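Lay summary

Proteins are chains of building blocks that fold into shapes. Our project writes down both the chain and a compact code for its shape. Here are two examples, one after the other.
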Amino acid sequence: MSVRPFLITGCARTRGSPGGGAPTSSSSGTWCARASASSSSRVGLRPPDSSRDSVLTEMPVVSESSARVAPRRWRIERSRGPTASRAGSWSIVLLLLRQKDLSNRRGRSDGQHMNENYDVVVVGGGAAGLSGAVALARSRRSVLVVDAGDSRNAPAGHVHNFLSRDGTPPSELYAAGRAEVTGYGGRVETARVAALARDGERFGVQISAQTGERTVAARRLLVATGLRDVLPDVPGLAARWGIDVLHCPYCHGWEVRGQRIGILSTGPAAVHQALLFAQLSPHVTLLQHTGPALDADQHKQLGALGVAIAEGEVERIEAGTDGLTGVVLAGRGRLALDAVVVAPRMEARAELLEPLGLKPAEVLIGEHPVGTRIEADRTGATAVPGVWVAGNLADPQAQVVGAAAAGLMAGAAINFDLILDEARSRG
């Protein structure tokens, strides 16, 4: 399958897919046009007056370039719900999953044992996970969000390009999103999901918290665990990540406009980044570092926009009390800078999904791997029936607002899938 381009329109793809990707119609087609997972929909939303809530109030916009049709076999399998898995050692999980009195409401306590059975468990409480949970809770679904509190954009001071929430700290967006979920009757828990399993018509979700471990059951899963940024191995770089070591002009460019910006070249995205940041500052330098040699066309493009080129590997990043001050180039001394732009490898946090049969696919720029993702259709449905993904786990390009839209799309699709399942079982 093809994915939206990261570098030049039409050249980013998943390994094994056709060489040409579908072009995009906006700046989100650039490799770094979308950045990190954060949280929230609307702050101050009035809680429902009763448990009989209205349906979704907003529809996400999905570009045609990102949509793909799932094979017919997938659609048929999803309509039947999860299939039986191989026998395992999770006896307590299987006992829970096979109970006949599973409720589609919140777990009930008998004084000694909590029988926790949910319509949906959402793994990950960023923009995608919380938006999906809000859509499900507003549709009167029992939903539990489990969030480990280690979001991708935690180092960033503010979220940008989120309409009406521009400049909001990520922590505030998370808090607002959690309040919306609980306001509609959903649950949000700070804990870590240790493992996922399936048996028959249910999934088992093993949760590890400070109070101990337990397993809950879910009819469907929405996994929105995001990705991790693997930074170039340059001393001093990681300490400035999200502050003045940046990666996306749409997320951080305005904040460094007019400043001295160095582009650390480690792959084919560097020239693209240099051209984008040249729009924001006349003081941009491409640090050749370990990146590929430039061809004649690239030299011409960079020269036309006034981008300087500095040869030699970057030995370290230097910073003072007021922020980043420059880099030291091997054999060439110090170069004064105010910000450094990098292209991290974006690796999907997909370890929980591998036992269910979902493994990450590589995302490529040309033949150069830049990260991994879990493949899914436009609603987030994966090849495993009953499992949806959203946000950076499925789309490494997704910015906060895009991740929120994807979560809403997945939540709506899950709700309708459950409706069809209930219609079959009652018919």
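And here is the second example, written the same way.
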Amino acid sequence: MNCPAFFIGAYQIWEISGHVTIVVRGVTPPIPAIINGLFFDPPSPVTAAGHLTVSASARATPIRICAPSDPSYSRSQLSVRVTALPVGGRVTLSDGVTAVTAHEPLTVDQLTSLKFVPSASETTASTFAYTVTNPAAGSTPGSVLIAAEVPRASPLPPRCSAAGMEEAPILRNDSRREISLLVPRSSIIPSDIAVLINDGDQQSIVVAQYFQLRHAIPDANMIHLRLPITPAKGANFAISAQEFATLKAQVDAQLGENIQAYAITWTQPYMVLGDSAGAVGITSAFTYGYDSAAARSSHYFNSATYHPYTDFHIRPAMMLAGYTP
């Protein structure tokens, strides 16, 4: 590899032959560079999605946002701007009193010491969102799902208590006391669902957290994955049949026999491409496998079963996520 370097004014120029990864540091902010015809952007800050659940009657509670980082800059050089506020309470500075407003600039130290003061009269779950920017104008969004919970006045979601049965709450006519009655299953229940999460996609993480909170999905059913590509709006809409086979094997290895269906929390990829069946939607591929013959001859269609995996050895899949700019 030939890698001579020299300066022209304040900028550093590199003549490079071969395949390398380069980070240029200097007295000026990094700028995009074209090396051997390829375009290189300076790296952007790194953020991590968060999750906070508090009682609706709690006092000011630290949100504990992870400090953003940047491979080229110190945290003191990063700037933060609030882009969305949660409902069901207010976000404050570390004093628990001074309210944070939309579009307000913050330092990293202020971001990591924010608190949430709940004021909800009913259970809420919403997002506090922000953007971290470095001196080279590279920016990355960050978010925290904040849930303020009010104690349930109604019973928990039904749980399976016997094969083919579930508990249904009823009120006794004489005492008006609530009792449970075992009845035939009327639907797929939360413990039947596996939630598929792409840990490389922040929106997938937040959507999965919210879905779990609202539907009481067991922790064991939250399946964390690293997709072969990192989704981006308008790109990376498909993976190959070979990549999907690897991904499906990772999912299957984490599932128990009780799992009857999938909830997919990413928006991309939404298609599987291959030679044998052409383009297949990723929900169909998870349900039937990448096999067009299986999709054409499903015994699940119009059946009354609530146990599609037990009865037909398929797990129906649906996608939950949507893109919010």
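What can we say about the second shape? The longest strand covers residues 139-149.
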